């Protein structure tokens, strides 16, 4: 194991007996009403949320009973599958950071944390939380409620043959049973429907039953509003160009995560911390209500199918909103549950290059033409897999822009070409990155800052599985820390619960200060000036709302926002094989494809006087494999993931090696190499084929524009974000990304590394086999570095004294000295 690994001194105690059940709905027997109302907070709305914001909510709202960390989405679930295939953890690697920060105050306050960070390995996450609590001297009971088994007979053909497992969207029942049986401090789940994470503590505390569908609908409404965190309280909402949504930066900085107050009778109030910034009003609630719900008359959750069409919001104060009107659909609960299974969908290769100055758009078009042509020379037909667009011109616009028709006033002098391909074979993706890099000396003038990457892509296939075929399991463990410490919690100014759930205040007193008025008649106006919107995605479908600023404008909007109008506007999103020059014939083929494959649904939501629009089969495969610029992308190493693939020992930057992005401790890297003497199958993980091993992480998109300046690991000179490639956690210039021994150009798919020094496989094998250990490899690298450094030093004039003019020792003495060093180093490695 790694140097920082220390075995725990105590054993974990099983609490009660584990239980296993199928997902058939079973009514609770004489459920106990424990409270008149329960306070449930959202501590995280997605996997990249801010732990410090959750701590602030705990500090400011002392009456919280539960804190839910909702950190799992389709994209992050796919990441966990990918991590498992590469020998990593199946649970969220952020869990250590979250628990170290939140556990002390949560345990002291008696606040139960519920989280789906267990992902595909809830039991592993349980062990990690117990380990963290023991290290901090905190006694905790950690329960798990997770998917246990699926009968093969219940799986459809598309899911039955997936080797990487299938995840089911479970409901609230497993969490309720876990709370009832074990009274845990923390509950860790596998994939559970977002709203169900919040519904579970309501059912448990308020004594609701599974056939009280009106209560379940109201509770699920609260959960749906909370599940995306600060999106309810002003996050992803502020817009300086919209007078109805603008707010000072100070208010945006001081966002509060939301919480809900839910009564035994099903009355729901959502709120933010007293004195916090952001905004909680009708507009933020309406946006979140319609976020990714599909048909608002039948929003399907595992526990209840909900009709949201008559939901309304009543302002209670600047920090509280009353929510009412959710009711069950005619089909109260679904007979089948949603299943997701991962499968390989191809190899992604992408490249970007910046052009500036006069006619930069035309130069980008020329570069795009060259890369496509070069790809066709090597792999005929492969260019049809590539999508191209210009960042700064047409990369995020739904409405088509024909570049030849761009008015001169629109001309810009700072653009970035992006080409993104999804290929059947890895060699095609690699060839694409090579051809794109060739633009440096073979493309148009004035280009620079090339970034490229290729990686294996997976998507999540969906299906429905009968409840009787799905099994879940609950269990709990408690630690017995031997190093208990007195904890002092630093508590900020706190709020106390309010009893004004039904005391309405005038809406006018809660306004933005901007007078609401209808859109003018008999003249063209921008849709942007009439309404606001929020867009989301589910698989290959997009869901966006149209919410008028002035509610009466909904009647005119209904006449404009028709399925045909929507198809016309969003049709450019289907440019599946687009290049930058589209002919009229291309447009005709695209429109035909849209008519045959894209379905548009427009729903009216009466309670909030809005429209909800769903467009099916439009997102180029969905969030996990889309070639568009706004997809989620990027992989990096968390500290908990930076470990040897073979022994799982924790690594440090000064003591690791890697093969094609797969990490090893030096001991096992040397052992595996000695067994074969080459880069053979020994370097595959035990869980996956070699082609599923993780590639080195691409640099984060944000770093390309952040202005952060790093030093190149190879030349120690400034490397700017747009010219940076990150490998083994170190920044390099593109031109410096080469073998430390022979200067051979490297690719992300073929390299070896030792202590952050990069080699081509040929020279690494050659240097290694000469001595059979690491010392010779490092010595060769040091000699190369010293030689290159000496070439840069000015010559010494005759007679000038320097410190390094001593006579060199004879070769025999030098060899003996090197052998002694190697023996000492081998001894140190054996001891470690």
UniProtKB/TrEMBL annotation:
Residues 684-705, 780-832 are annotated as: Disordered. This is LIM zinc-binding domain-containing protein. The keyword Manganese does not apply. SUPFAM superfamilies: Glucocorticoid receptor-like (DNA-binding domain) (SSF57716). It holds the Pfam family AtuA_ferredoxin. The keyword Membrane does not apply. Keywords: LIM domain, Metal-binding, Zinc. Residues 609-675, 710-770 form the LIM zinc-binding domain. It comes from the Eukaryota. InterPro entries: AtuA-like_ferredoxin_dom, AtuA_N, Znf_LIM. GO terms for molecular function: actin filament binding; metal ion binding. It comes from Lactuca virosa. Residues 780-792 have a biased composition (Polar residues). One of its GO terms (biological process) is actin filament bundle assembly.
């Amino acid at each position: 194991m790694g140097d920082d690994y220390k075995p725990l001194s105590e054993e974990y105690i099983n609490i009660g007996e584990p239980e296993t059940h199928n997902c058939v709905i079973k009514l609770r027997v004489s459920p106990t009403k424990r409270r008149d109302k329960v306070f449930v907070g959202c501590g995280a709305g997605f996997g990249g949320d801010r732990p410090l914001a959750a701590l602030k909510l705990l500090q400011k709202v002392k009456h919280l009973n539960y804190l839910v960390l909702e950190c799992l989405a389709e994209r992050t679930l796919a990441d966990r599958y990918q991590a498992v295939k590469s020998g990593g953890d199946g649970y969220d690697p952020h869990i250590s950071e979250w628990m170290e920060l939140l556990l002390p105050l949560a345990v002291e306050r008696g606040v139960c944390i519920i989280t789906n960070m267990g992902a595909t390995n809830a039991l592993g996450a349980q062990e990690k939380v117990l380990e963290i609590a023991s290290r901090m001297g905190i006694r905790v009971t950690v329960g798990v409620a997770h998917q246990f088994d699926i009968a093969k007979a219940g799986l459809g053909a598309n899911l039955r043959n997936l080797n990487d497992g299938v995840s089911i969207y479970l409901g609230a029942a497993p969490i309720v049973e876990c709370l009832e049986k074990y009274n845990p401090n923390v509950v860790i789940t596998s994939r559970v429907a977002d709203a169900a994470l919040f519904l579970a503590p309501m059912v448990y505390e308020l004594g609701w039953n599974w056939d009280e569908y009106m209560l379940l609908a109201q509770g699920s409404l609260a959960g749906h509003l909370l599940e995306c965190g600060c999106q309810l309280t002003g996050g992803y909402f502020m817009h300086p160009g919209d007078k109805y949504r603008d707010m000072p930066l100070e208010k945006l900085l001081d966002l509060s995560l939301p919480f809900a107050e839910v009564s035994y009778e099903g009355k729901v109030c959502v709120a933010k911390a007293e004195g916090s910034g952001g905004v909680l009003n009708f507009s933020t609630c309406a946006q979140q209500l319609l976020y990714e719900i599909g048909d608002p008359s039948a929003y399907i959750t595992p526990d209840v199918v909900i009709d949201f069409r008559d939901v309304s919001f009543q302002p209670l104060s600047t920090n509280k909103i009353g929510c009412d009107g959710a009711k069950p659909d005619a089909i109260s609960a679904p007979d089948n549950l949603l299943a997701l299974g991962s499968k390989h969908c191809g190899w992604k290769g992408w490249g970007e290059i910046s052009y500036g100055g006069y006619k930069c758009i035309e130069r980008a078009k020329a570069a795009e033409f060259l890369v496509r042509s070069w790809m066709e020379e090597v792999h005929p037909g492969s260019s049809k897999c590539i999508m191209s667009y210009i960042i700064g011109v047409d990369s995020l616009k739904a409405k088509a822009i024909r570049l030849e028709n761009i008015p001169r006033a629109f001309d810009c002098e700072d653009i970035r070409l992006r080409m993104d391909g999804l290929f059947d074979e890895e060699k095609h993706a690699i060839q694409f990155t090579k051809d794109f890099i060739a633009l440096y000396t073979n493309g148009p003038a004035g280009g620079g800052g090339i970034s490229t990457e290729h990686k294996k892509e997976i998507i999540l296939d969906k299906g429905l599985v009968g409840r009787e075929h799905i099994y879940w399991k609950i269990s709990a463990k408690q630690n017995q820390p031997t190093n208990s410490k007195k904890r002092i919690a630093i508590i900020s100014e706190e709020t106390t619960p309010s009893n004004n759930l039904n005391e309405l205040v005038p809406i006018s007193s809660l306004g933005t200060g901007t007078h609401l008025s209808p859109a003018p008649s008999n003249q063209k106006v921008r849709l942007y000036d009439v309404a606001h919107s929020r867009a989301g995605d589910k698989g290959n479908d997009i869901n966006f709302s149209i919410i008028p600023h002035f509610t009466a404008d909904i009647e005119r909007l209904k006449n404009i926002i028709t399925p045909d109008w929507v198809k016309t506007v969003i049709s450019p999103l289907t440019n599946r094989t687009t290049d930058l020059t589209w002919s009229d014939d291309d447009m005709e083929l695209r429109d035909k494809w849209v008519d045959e494959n894209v379905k548009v649904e427009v729903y009216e939501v009466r309670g909030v006087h809005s429209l909800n629009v769903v467009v099916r089969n439009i997102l180029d495969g969905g969030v996990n494999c889309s070639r568009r610029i706004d997809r989620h992308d990027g992989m990096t190493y968390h500290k908990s993931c930076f470990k040897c693939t073979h022994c799982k020992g924790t690594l440090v930057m000064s003591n690791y090696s890697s093969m094609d992005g797969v990490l090893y401790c030096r001991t096992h890297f040397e052992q595996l190499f000695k067994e074969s003497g080459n880069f053979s199958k020994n370097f595959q993980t035990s869980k996956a084929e070699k082609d599923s091993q993780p590639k080195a992480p691409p640099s984060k998109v944000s770093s390309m524009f952040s202005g952060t300046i790093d030093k190149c690991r190879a030349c120690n000179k400034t490397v700017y974000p747009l010219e940076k490639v990150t490998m083994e956690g170190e920044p390099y210039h593109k031109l410096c990304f080469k073998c430390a021994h022979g200067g051979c150009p490297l690719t992300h798919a073929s390299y070896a590394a030792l202590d952050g020094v990069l080699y081509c496989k040929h020279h690494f094998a050659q240097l290694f086999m000469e001595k059979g250990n690491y010392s010779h490899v490092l010595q060769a690298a040091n000699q190369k570095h010293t030689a290159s450094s000496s070439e840069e030093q000015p010559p010494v004039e005759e007679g000038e004294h320097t410190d390094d003019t001593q006579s060199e020792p004879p070769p025999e003495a030098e060899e003996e000295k090197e052998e002694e060093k190697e023996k000492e180093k081998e001894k140190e490695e054996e001891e470690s």
